[in-house]
Every structure is written in structure tokens, then in C-alpha cells.
Amino acid sequence: xxxxxxxxxxxxxxxxxxxxxxxxxxxxxxxAFPETSAxxxxxxxxxxxxxxxxxxxxxTASSSIHINQFGFRxxxxxxxxxxxxxxxxxxxxxxxxxxxxxxxDPDRSSRAFYDRLTESGIEVFVVRASQIRAPRGxxxxxxxxxxxxxxxxxxxxxxxxxxxxxxxxxxxxxVEDHFQDGRFHDLFLRLEGPIASQLQLVFxxxxxxxxxxxxxxxxxxxxxxHPATAEDVPxxxxxxxxGAYRPLTDAIAAALDGxxxxxxxxxxxxxxxxxxxxxxxxxxxGARVRLFVPADANNWACAAAQHFHHRGLLDAGVExxxxxxxxxxxxxxRDGEDxxxxxxxxxxxxxRRFFEIDVLVRSTELAAQFEExxxxxxxxxxxPGRAVSGLRDRARTTAFAAISPLL
Length: 407
Prior knowledge:
The protein is α+β, with helices and mostly antiparallel strands. The chain has helices at residues 12-18, 47-59, 76-90, 101-104, 111-119, 177-180, 195-209, 219-222, 247-258, 273-284, 300-308, 310-316, 348-352, 364-381, 391-402; strands at residues 36-38, 40-45, 64-69, 94-100, 123-127, 133-134, 146-147, 159-163, 167-171, 184-185, 187-192, 233-240, 262-266, 288-294, 319-323, 326-327, 331-334, 338-342, 356-362, 383-384. Strand 8 and strand 9 form a beta hairpin.
């Protein structure tokens, strides 16, 4: 772990109390958590399978719904979420959203959609990574613009839902129709138990950093007690905020370095040379390594950079599986026990600059569930990955691999 690691937060509720007084700087978003537990952890693959139970959890909310979402846009699934949130807000449930300007576009193409939400009392906060000067605080709450240097270049790529401080969802999909209709293949992890308090604190710290209010009398409901159960398994939230402390990047590296028997890597954009090198080493020391990628990625530049690495990966013994549609999930399963699921891609921006979040769960049962619900079905329909051939294609992929840290 880097020397810049902050103090470990043992009690998320106690730490939340400290965030209530005075402005919260971006440095306060560097949150270090100890391993806690989840009383349940289940994998849901494809939008048609994860949106309905997510919406059901939202419908059962009694006190709070907190959503941090890179892409939350109008459409069939966006309307389903908007209707559910508006209904709960009308019932007196506190609904807060944190969205990314680039992913959700609340000021322009999605303006009417977000006007409906804010006019009904839903609090919306926006991370504006591409604006040098920008308004601060709640969306369209008034006030002048200000210099926005602490957000500049740091896209909020997280996808998290926390309901009543008891249920958490973490995955790779936005609230967008292409995840619902199968054009993008993705997954979410649903969690209950103490792990929900770590997710809750990450969300509240972000809201406070963006100028939002959280009242002390909310904290008991936001951080309820989580009685221990016989089903509890070790779990940990890993959160990358801009800065030198990147526990998620470290955890991915540790998963690749520590694999001794098996390693499944699921990722749409695999361009980071150091992570690619770690996969090669895992295969060379005898681990069965499978890399699941899209056959035709939506980001053609990243796809070209990734294909540069295929020959070396194949030569090292890595099995590359190209999924027929846009595989967008981000997951790592090591030695049939450690399961890491969330939002982080294997490229420079995600690993070092963006807001990203994953959850690590140590559970042979969850690893087996992941194999049954994701890996085995994906392997059955995927084509073998191939090395690039031909002078023109080799030159093209070499060029994009060289500039991949900028893509």
C-alpha cells in the first residue's frame, strides 16, 4: 500500500459525523477501509436480470435512496428509474443522486429529464470533469460559477445504489437502454450487511464534497445496525478518488500477482502494460488465466491498443475470449475465492485518474456463482482471441498502444 494511505476508517457512521461540519476537501474522499463483511452477495448478469430487483429494492425504501451513476439518461429504463424515484420522493423518502456530466449530460440533452427530478425534490449533484468553471452544489440550485480545478479531468465513473443503508449494488452498467436490451453485456453485485455502510460513507463524502447537506439526525437511519449472520463473508469496499492513494488499483494488481491456480479477468478496455504484464506472469507460473473482452469494443482506439497485447498474452498461455456483443463488465476472480466486481477498467484513466469503486468479496460460493452465471455462459458463446497479423494492422495497434495512457 502507498505511504500516502489515510487512516483506516473502522466506524463509517462515526466518520460520517466528522464530515458534517464545514466544507469537505477532495482529499477527504481518500477513504481507507478495513475488511468487513457481507451477509449476502449475489451476482446479477444482464440488465434484464439486474434492473428489476434493483427497482424492487428502491420500491421498498423507507428512509433513503442514494445513487451514484456515471450514465443516467432518459429512455425506457431511465423512465422506469425516474418513476420509481419520484414515487419514493413523494412518500417522503430522501433521494439523492450524484451523476457525471459527461456520462449523463443533465444540462443539455437530458435537461428535461433532470428538471422533472429536481422539481419534485430529488437532490442531484454533478461532477463536472470537463468544465474549468462550473456551478457547485445541487443541480440548478442557483449561484454563480467558480473555478473547478479539483474536479477537472476526474470523471466520476462509479455506479452504486444504496437503499436505506442496508442494501448496496455495485457494477459496471449505467441506467441506459443499451444495458437493458442486450447491446451491452454487464453485471451488478447485490450486497447486504456491514459492507453497505462503507458504500454509504463513500456516497455521503462525495455529496458533502459537492456542497450537499447531510443532517446529523439522518445518520442513525443511514447507518443502521447490521447483526452478524451465519452467512457473513469477508468483504471490502475499494474506492479510487483522484490523488496518490489508489487502493482499488493496488487490489487489482494484488489479485493478478497472487493468482496461483485460476484467474478470470473480465474487462472491456485492457491497455495498461503493467496489468497486462501481471496477467502474463500469472499464466507463466502455472495459473489458468482467462481474459474476457468484447469482440468489437465501442472504443475503437482502446480496442486497437488492446489488440497489440494479444500476441504476448497468447504466447504466455492466457486464453483470450472475445464476447460477441459489447462486453462492458469489470470483474476479477482469483483462485475460486476472491471476487472483485465494480467499475474499474484496465486503462490509465480508470486506474489512476477517475473516481472508481469495486467491492472485494472472499467467498468460494460467490466465485462458483460467478462461474455459473457469467464465466461459463460467456465462454460458451465467445470466440478465441487472435493475435494481430499483417503489417498495416501491426503498425496501427503498435501506435495506439504507445499512446494508450492518453486514450
